[in-house]
Amino acid sequence: MKELWLETDPDTFELWRGEPIESGDPDLGAVTYPAQIADLWSPEELTAVGLYAPAHDAVPAGKVIASSTVARVGGVVKFVDSYEDIVITADEVNAERDRRIGLGMPVQPTGIAEPFVMQTRDPDDFRNINGLSTAALALANMGSTQTISVRDAADVQHDLSLGQVIELGLQVQGGVSAIYEKSWALKAMSPIPLDFAADGYWT
Question: Is the confidence at residue 24, as pLDDT, over 90?
Answer without folding.
Answer: no
